[in-house]
Amino acid sequence: MSQQQGPLLSVRNLKTYFYTDEGVVKAVDGLTYDLHRGETMGIVGESGSGKSVHALSIMRLIPSPPGKTVDGQILFEGQDLLKLPEEQMRKVRGNRIAMIFQEPMTSLNPVLTVGEQIAEAVMLHQKLDKKAAWDRAAEMLDRVKIPSAKDRVRDYPHQFSGGMRQRVMIAMALSCNPDILLADEPTTALDVTIQAQILDLMRELQRDFGTAIVMITHNLGVVAETCDKVTVMYGGKPMEQTDVRRTFKDPKHPYTWGLLRSVPKLYEREEKLIPIEGQPPSLIDLPSGCPFSARCPFRMDVCTSTELPRIEMDATHQVACFLYTDKATEQEKEAARQAGFLLSTRGM
Fold it and tell me: Does the first or last residue of the chain, that is N or C, have fewer Cβ atoms within 10 Å of its Cβ?
């Protein structure tokens, strides 16, 4: 992984809200991270944590109304995408920054062949003629290991299996050699064998093209296998951010502990999984302070009344939790240390 003098993508205090009749949905509320060229950032959390909305915000695909990015910056090579005119943004979207959407069958056009859909993007962004664009479409299908790619380029989406449709989506996203690939749950609904093949394929293509990847997932196994850095989100907010090793070996946030404890281990068959009690909060009526407070076993009075702090454990590890401030007693801090220590010794 090569890191140039600065990040390729910088998300700064991103806030994307939806204004509904019931109230304001704070889908993303203060997300910040840096992504360097060739790096993979994992965005992990339960459904409704803001993972997909953050990606759509980067692509400027938030439907308005009711959605709006109300604050923050999305700096791509130093240029704020939120301030670009739509005409310039279209030159970035699908070309410099591409996205694999969550469900390929609803993202692919059922009345166009897969070749037409890939060639359309190539002709638009790469300015190739029709024949060259179709050749590129066949080449990309071959790159993602679809057999008989030159023939299948004329097939329709319904003629492909789920795993093959996902490969088509990857081929389409990478057809213009993007600098950044936003992968929104790219292995959802695939069996584990196909899932492994898709992840291997993405790693191979990343090595070949030098693409930076934002891997959006709820699957910690995918995070462990593919990511360099991890952002754990809950209730639209980043709870913990660090490198992938420390996410599993030295997690600090109670929500991260809860996620890790709920993952089964093949070599610990007798161990009982510990679910996170309760349900995620409504984003319309988020509690004051920490959104995880209602489900947190280490909850303190300050957690429900004060704005979340952003604690720098060190230069590469940030956590949003009052356990690491002077608001927590020594007894509370010791209980948290023990919980983190026990988790780190389980072979995560």
Answer: N
